[in-house]
Amino acid sequence: MRIAITAFKPELPRIDPRLLPDGQAQAARNVDLERGTVQSLHGPASTGISLDVAKPTTLYRYPHGNEGRGYWFAWGMGAQVHVVRSPLANDEWNRIYWTGDDFPKMAGIGQATAGSPPYPGSYYRLGIPEPGGEVALSAPGNRDPGETAPDLALDTAYAVTLVSRYGEEGPPLYSGGTIVRWDAEDGAPDGGEVVVRLPTAPSGAYDIQSLRVYRVESGGVYQYVADLEPTATEFLDDVSSERLGVEIPSTEWQAPDARMIGLTALPNGILAGYFDNTLCFSEAYRPHAWPVGYQLAMPNDIVAIASTSAGLVVLTDGQPQLVTGSSPAAMAQQELDVSQTCVAPRSVVDMGGYALYASPDGLVATSGRDAQVVTENVLTKRQWAAMRPEMIHAYRYDGRYVGFHAGKCFVFTPGEGVEFVDVEADAGYYDIADDTLYLVQDSSITAWRQGDPLEYRWRSKIVEVPPGGAGFTCGKLIARDYPVRLRVFADSVPMLDADITGPGMFRLPSGYVLSRDWEIEIVGTNEVHSVQIATSPSELT
């Protein structure tokens, strides 16, 4: 009779320890099982960086500046901030955009890294507003009101927009009526110009650099006339019709709703966010422009969103939705066939082709039009509820779902099981540039799995042996290095608790031949390849 373990697997807590598949663990804590052996998972390593933020809950690494080292941005006191980089290639200002910190915001490198930590140091409000006041039109002083307008005169109207230093343009403010104007051509009377009384740029966290004037003639389209200083109050339009420029592009370009959160980057330069039950999309490659016409109403309030290769997963307090489309003007939504709400916005993780999120019954994977509870064969509802899923914040690392909850940590590998780790964190950020998961621990930044090895504990299934058939007398443990602590349990009683110091055979104490239930547990930091116990030395391999 021999019990041999040559492949080590994670836990399946849902299954009775007697019914576990071979190699599956009753307990797998602080283990690295990637190689099929038991290795010690390394704990986080200090980066030497502390955050000047009270109770940080969101972490982001800004990769620009600081002699190539970048900067750490953090938000605290429960703020759930979502940050995206500029969708423009080679953005000369290295802009970022974020929500969850009051109204939606943006900053270039000059604003974001201004002053001393904490960062971001400064910001602008995301979006460009409509000008304030009105656009009023009048004839110039040299126009003779008693003279008939020439045949080339046209009815014209005007619109004025605001433009930021980044070239971001806002929605237009239109003049209240039309006025006759004509070009200054041979034979035309004087006074064909138009005096445009200009609106004002609003105060607040905007970086308005100019007023932009457009003109429409005889029912055509509004075309560019001039850029003016933001403090200008009046403009004499003497621009001829043939010198008019491009058509106004920003007719529908509103600033995002002040309540919008959950900012997420999609393909094709599109950003998405939400408030209440409303899903919002930006104009492609125009992160400041959020047309109301692009909004979609969900049947329930939105909890979180995640961009996957299959589309945008929209998680609500009802049925989840999948939204697909390559243009913000042509997005289509479809309800996913799973009755699982999202209980923790910070639990949502884009795993590539699918998203994982915490529901009342377990982790749910959404892939295309399919969605299912992928932990239903790993954890019971009671076990899942005991993990307090409403507190989970999670991250993708090396194809695994790393979740933190109530001072604990678990690592879920789809299709394999779950491992538990003696590490806690308040926030985290996966940096794809250096393939590192950074954690916030006691207001300091640490690097996941880059510290000292943690002491692991791996415990086998219960192997039932008919009483009288368990005359185990010896064993062997193969490890990369020694010692390794080995515990052998007979009917839950530790019949052996010893440090194994080499690969040779060791003896087991006698007196347990009538025991039925046998378990093997290893504890340590050295890698273990196999462990076995047998009734005779000839059975050991």
Describe this structure in words.
By secondary structure, the chain is mostly beta strands. Among the domains are: 2-41 and 455-539, Jelly Rolls, CATH 2.60.120; 136-243, no CATH class. 2% of the residues lie in helices and 41% in strands. The chain starts with a strand and ends in a 7-residue tail after the last strand.
Short description:
This protein is mainly β. Helix content is 2%, strand content 41%.
The DSSP helix count reads 2
Shape, per Cα inertia axes: elongated
Largest sheet at a glance? 6 strands, antiparallel
Low-pLDDT residue spans = none
Question: In percent terms, what proportion of residues is strand?
Answer: 35-45%
Structural class designation = mainly beta
Query: Average pLDDT value?
Result: 95
Rg for CA atoms: 33 Å
Top-tier CATH class of the domain at 2-41 and 455-539: Mainly Beta
Q: What share of the residues lie within helices?
A: under 10%
N/C terminus separation: 13 Å
Fill in the CATH topology of the domain at 2-41 and 455-539: Jelly Rolls
Tell how many strands the DSSP assignment holds.
46
CATH architecture of the domain at 2-41 and 455-539: Sandwich
